[in-house]
TrEMBL record:
Tagged with keyword Transmembrane helix: yes
Name this polypeptide is given: DUF1700 domain-containing protein
Swiss-Prot/TrEMBL keywords: Membrane, Transmembrane, Transmembrane helix
Listed transmembrane segments: 78-97, 104-130, 136-160
Domain of life of the source: Bacteria
Length: 185
């Protein structure tokens, strides 16, 4: 494969990346070709030493999406970064998707608990409609306690969510380094 074929294949694999970022990525490879050709290598030797453009594009796309998730901090960008990282190898399907799904599942269940506790005064109103005012004070204070716990837990879950977002990003980056063989770096 020659330089232009390599760069065209790489560019087509990176078609989801915005043009200015893709141009920056391709410039690095053009520069690599130029430097290696100055040292006497042929375009075919350089392209072979770089490897498969499809695999390189997967790596570049995963790193790009992780950097987007760091700056954007939305669920959508995190989802795209995780999916791109999973596509790097079968290893990632097991060691990346499993823990992330488990952590998100626990987070969502705790968030649902916080919402249910916050809405506990609705149970008090229903209890008054169906059972009458018996033990009203006990039910009233229990509803206030549960609602207060729910509000506090909801606030805590906001902070836990931000922390989990950062931890998942770090785990995705670590996983990319493992797949690339640079775990200790």
């Amino acid at each position: 494969m020659d330089k232009q074929g390599f760069l065209n294949e790489l560019s087509s694999q990176l078609n989801t990346v915005p043009e200015h970022d893709r141009t920056d990525m391709l410039y690095d490879f053009e520069e690599h070709f130029e430097l290696a050709m100055e040292s006497g290598k042929t375009e075919a030797e350089i392209a072979e030493s770089l490897g498969n453009p499809k695999l390189i594009a997967k790596d570049l796309l995963a790193e790009y999406l992780v950097s987007q998730a760091e700056s954007d901090q939305s669920v959508k960008s995190m989802f795209h970064a995780v999916l791109a990282t999973i596509s790097l190898s079968f290893f990632n399907l097991i060691f990346l998707l499993g823990p992330i799904v488990a952590i998100i599942g626990v987070y969502l269940s705790l968030s649902a608990t916080a919402i249910v506790l916050t809405l506990s005064p609705i149970g008090l109103i229903a209890s008054l409609l169906f059972e009458g005012p018996s033990n009203f004070l006990i039910k009233f204070f229990m509803a206030i306690i549960f609602c207060s716990l729910g509000v506090l837990m909801s606030i805590g879950m906001i902070y836990v969510g931000k922390f989990l977002y950062q931890m998942i990003l770090k785990y995705v980056k670590f996983n990319i380094r493992i797949v690339k063989g640079r775990a200790g770096k």
